[in-house]
Structures are given as C-alpha cells and as structure tokens.
Amino acid sequence: MTETSLVEARGLTKVYPARGGSAEFRAVDGIDFALRRGEAFGFLGPNGAGKSSTMRMISATSPISGGTLRVLDLDPVTQGPQVRARLGVVPQDDCLDRELTVRENLYIYGRYFGLPRKVIRERIAALLDFAQLQDKADEQVEVLSGGMRRRLTIARSLINEPEILLLDEPTTGLDPQARHVLWDRLFRLKQDGVTLILTTHYMDEAEQLCDRLVVMDGGRIVARGAPRDLIAEHVTREVLELRFADQDTAAEKLRSSSRLAGGRLEVLPDRLMVYTADGEAALAGVHELGLTPLTALVRRSTLEDVFLTLTGRSLID
Ligand SMILES: Nc1ncnc2c1ncn2[C@@H]1O[C@H](COP(=O)(O)OP(=O)(O)OP(=O)(O)O)[C@@H](O)[C@H]1O
C-alpha cells in the first residue's frame, strides 16, 4: 500500500455463489482503485453495477472473493473488527430505531462501540449540532422527515469519530432541498478532514461532491478521474437534446445529415442527443433539414453523458 492511499484495491472481485436455480454471479470483476486521505471518492453507476458490493467489502461486512484489498493498512477479511472500529457506514436503508428518540439512537450506537457514557454525551451534543437536530433531540425518530433521518444516520455513523465515512446512495429518495442540506453537511465533514467514499447513481451528486470517481458498469470500472476531467475527456462541451413526435424518422434523417455542426448522434428511447461543440449551430442544422422538434434543449455535458457515451445506456434507465 502506498503511503498516501487509505484504501487500495487490486483486481478486487466479488462472486456470489450459486443459489437455488441461479448460477454464481460475478458482481465485482477485478477492479483497481486507491484512495487518498481527505478526498471524496465516488462510485458512480446504474443499479446492479457492483457499487454496494464494493462498499460492503471495504467496510469489512462482506469477504472479498479475489484480488487484494487494504483498508487503513489493514486486511478487512482477517482484521474486520479493527477496520470497522475506524469506519463510519451510512447504509442505503437508515435502520434507525423509530420508537426511540434521536438522542437515544445516538447513545445506543456509542454504547455499541464501547465508548464511555461521558464521551458519548459530549459527542452527542456535537453531533446534534452538526446534524442540525438540536430541536429534535428528544423527539421519536418516527416523526422526523426523510432528510432529518438521513442526517441522523450520518451523525450516528460519526459517533466513533471515523477516519473514513462510507455512504451508500446518501440522498436517494430525498427532495431537492433536503439533498442540498445533506451535501452541505458532507462538505463540512470533508473540511474537517474525513475521507468520504460514496456511491450514487445521481450525476449531479457525483459532480458536486466527488474529487475523483470511478464509473462502474457490470462489475467493472469503465472510466475514472475528476468529474471535470472525465467530461472533458469523453464528451463534447455541449449537448443538444431533442424530442420528436416521430423519433425514428427524425433519427434517420439526422444520421445521414452533415448539418449537425460535427455533432455525434446518440439515440435514447425517449430522446435524441447530439454531442457537439456548438449546440445552437447543431439546432440550426436540424431546422434546415425541415425537422421540427417538440422540444430542443442545449446544455453543457455532464457525467450522465460520459456514462451514455461509454456504455450506450442512460444511468437512469
Ligand atoms: N448477496 C447477494 N447474492 C447474490 N447476488 C447479489 C447479492 N448482492 C448483490 N447481488 C447482485 O450483484 C449485482 C451488483 O449488486 P450491487 O448491490 O453491488 O450493485 P449496485 O451497483 O450497488 O446497485 P444498487 O444501486 O441497486 O444497489 C446485482 O446484480 C445484484 O443482484
């Protein structure tokens, strides 16, 4: 393990054994990555890409099937308890005790880590402040909003002052405002020096939060880098998104046309995308062909476009 990498994987593999009538399944297929202290590192990919399986191996809750994995210079298979003591884990499902209060949920977690009562009380005060839940401390979890529950889950995962925080799809199911509040809290953690590892299938989340990320598909890494570099490397600066009443005919005309300002055409089930340096010029070309889109939008390229370009599929399929 290099001096600066906090988590290092080489050829990391997860194979789930055959069960019932189904054959064995290779969910993670020989991936390499190395994490630096203090960064936010993302696993981006569609459902089933192998993101959660990778997170479970890092958090020492699921054994690796092949390759090597070091976490905080420890072996998560043989040194699971030592690894888990130094990590915080925010799973996809909150698994909070809904009948207990916010404070009690935090307290129980502190006891689980064997922390002295006085230390737990001090940390709870700081964590309630961090999660902006001081007013709710003595309310039952049952009455909290989805965003508050998420913040409580994150606060709970910090009770052991972890060096690395793993977050599995931290904002799935939250409304836009609650997502922004959560992002703000995660930025603050990063400022405090906590290394973040997160999975997401939201490109905006990956762009907002991640210093570096890997794009996964079918258990493999299909691209890696800083969000801005990935966009610059794999797609043009702009995209023209078009919707037509008769998409097939429009796609055929556009495919054989040279009027797309050098653009490359991608056909999705519900829309056409033209990747080009100049979206407005491409749109003018569309009109010159006598085509009238129902909607036309010129926007800058995103990680979603990187994924589409690499795999021919949309992340949110
Ligand atoms: N315990 C298991 N036994 C068998 N197959 C599994 C198991 N856990 C996950 N899988 C399969 O492995 C593949 C990858 O799953 P994983 O949960 O790692 O993907 P993911 O990228 O996190 O997707 P999601 O966003 O849906 O969580 C999926 O096809 C899934 O059905």
Automatic annotation (TrEMBL):
Can you give the residue ranges of the ABC transporter domain?
Answer: 7-243
- Name the InterPro entries for this protein: AAA+_ATPase (IPR003593), ABC_transporter-like_ATP-bd (IPR003439), ABC_transporter-like_CS (IPR017871), ABC_transporter_ATP-binding (IPR050763), P-loop_NTPase (IPR027417)
In terms of superkingdom, the source organism counts as Bacteria
Q: What is its main location?
A: membrane
Keywords, in A-Z order: Antibiotic resistance, ATP-binding, Nucleotide-binding, Transport
- Which compartments is it annotated to reside in? Cell membrane
Could you give a GO molecular-function term held by this entry?
ATP binding
Q: How does it sit in the membrane?
A: Peripheral membrane protein
The UniProt record lists the keyword Calcium: no
Q: Which family does it belong to?
A: Belongs to the ABC transporter superfamily.
| Annotated protein name in UniProt | ATP-binding cassette domain-containing protein
**Organism this protein belongs to:** Rugosimonospora acidiphila
